[in-house]
Amino acid sequence: MKYSIIGATGAIGSTIVRQLAAEGKQVRALVRDAEKFYRLLPDILAEAVIGDALNPKDVRRAVAEVDVVFHCVNFPLTQYERTLEAAHVLVEAVLSEKPHVVFPGNTWVFGKPARLPITPETPFGPPSAIARLKAKVDEMLMNSGLPVTVVHLPDFYGPNVANPLMKPLFESALAGKNIFFPAPVNVPHQFIYIDDAARALIAVAGQEGCHGRRYTVGGVEPITVRRFAETIYQAAGTQGRVRGMPLWLLRLLGLFSAEARAGAGMMHTFAWDVSMDGTALQRDTGFMPQVGSVDGIARTLAWFHQSAS
């Protein structure tokens, strides 16, 4: 079986490449920057296709004669409409060959669920423009006529996860500085270690019984942002205070900043519990997360230490 990863230098894409290559699988990666790819993944046996996820010719080269495509394309929140464009490009590129498309979903699209935990049957209720965009990508892929599987992941952390939410948590704790998180910090939340997130996506890949299915990833014990950050401080051997921000303040800041405005569109997931049930995924693939928060935080701190040296 041959695999293609679109968006292979991102956190989730690069982790999938690493895991598949470690298993001796045939891997092809579409990347814009080959130097960055090989710096992230030294000694990895993978074919790199240099190109752009928005360029149909490049995408066709990346997905030619493969069995599974992991569509891990992501754009900055201020350019998030491009994720929908990239999904359209992918669909056109693979329509003739129809490989299995695996797409990482998230919790933005569910809004505030009427009941918990969230399951694959929970209806979408995206409460913001950016969440509606994510839902459109999901629904467009699922209705494309291709064999598609969507796996809704909790927020992930770990090596190479350097987004504006996760990076400050670890860097501030390492420096013994206070953490100011742009959302409420006392609501139960799910975080998943990046290796487990990649394993969840790989678990469905090439599985015919998973075609046309949507899964939610559970098995991750809910933890508040405050407790998660305190665990980072403890592991780093430092101290600091954890402060949150009410959503109304973030929305107010959005009046003056495009970045804050875009970010406010996904921070609702920290304002209420969005815990997910992984029963269906476990039943169909056997997947369960393996890395707890204490171990995962220790590994992530080690990566930040190494990256800073």
Please tell me about this protein's structure.
- This protein is α/β, with parallel strands linked by helices and 309 residues long.
- The protein has a domain at 2-154 and 193-219 and 275-290: Rossmann fold (3-Layer(aba) Sandwich).
- It has 12 helices and 13 strands.
- The protein has helices at 11-22, 34-40, 56-63, 81-94, 129-142, 166-174, 194-204, 225-236, 247-253, 258-264, 279-285, 293-308; strands at 2-6, 26-31, 47-50, 68-71, 100-105, 148-152, 155-157, 179-180, 188-189, 191-193, 213-216, 223-224, 242-243.
- The strands form 4 sheets. A 7-stranded parallel sheet has the order 3-2-1-4-5-6-11, with helices on both faces. A two-stranded parallel sheet has the order 7-10.
- Strand 5 (100-105), helix 5 (129-142) and strand 6 form a beta-alpha-beta unit.
- Helix 1 crosses helix 7 (194-204) and helix 3 crosses helix 4 (81-94).
- The model has no long low-confidence stretch (mean pLDDT 93).
Tally of contiguous helical segments: 12
Given helix and strand content, the structural type is alpha/beta
Mean pLDDT: 93
Helix content: 40-55%
CATH topology of the domain at 2-154 and 193-219 and 275-290: Rossmann fold
Question: Rg from C-alpha positions?
Answer: 19 Å
Number-wise, the strands total 13
CATH second-level architecture of the domain at 2-154 and 193-219 and 275-290: 3-Layer(aba) Sandwich
Main β-sheet description: 7 strands, parallel
